[in-house]
Amino acid sequence: xxxxxxxxxxxxxxxxxxxxxxxxxxxxxxxxxxxxxxxxxxxxxxxxxxxxxxxxxxxxxxxxxxxxxxxxxxxxxxxxxxxxxxxxxxxxxxxxxxxxxxxxxxxxxxxxxxxxxxxxxxxxxxxxxxxxxxxxxxxxxxxxxxxxxxxxxxxxxxxxxxxxxxxxxxxxxxxxxxxxxxxxxxxxx
Length: 189
Prior knowledge:
Blueprint: H1 5-17, E1 23-29, H2 33-47, E2 53-59, E3 65-71, H3 73-81, H4 83-91, H5 100-113, H6 121-124, H7 129-137, E4 145-146, E5 150-151, H8 155-177, H9 182-185
Antiparallel strand pairs: 1-3, 2-3, 4-5
Helix pairs in contact: 1-8
């Protein structure tokens, strides 16, 4: 049974829609490439004017699964412009640039070539750099708190951030299910 794209989108991306996070990623299965293109075009036309971009970073022709990346380009650019982030990404083989397109193209290539998610994807999902580095250095262990990702910083701070993200998702999902259009749910930035 096919899930509802709108419900999945809001469930996975409410914090991006609200402007609380720069980006999120989710998996969507659609065997019909034309249907996927039409669906994404419809969502892009609604959310693009509000500052939300949508693109496919990876598709699997065998499973028809697609990784849908939803982001706010300006905010992602701010993250990629940080010297510490640039240094981290350069060490991982990315070009030294804050250009979103070049960095996303590099990420997309890595996603298509590797069996596992490249760990630097956390930067593109607006995880704190300290948590991304902590995950890599600790091989996913020794975290101080876990929620939307594994945190390696102050657990109380992480718990508060995760609670805000969860509350946002709950509120947005309730509003969406009650008939509020995504254009009204999405904060213009």
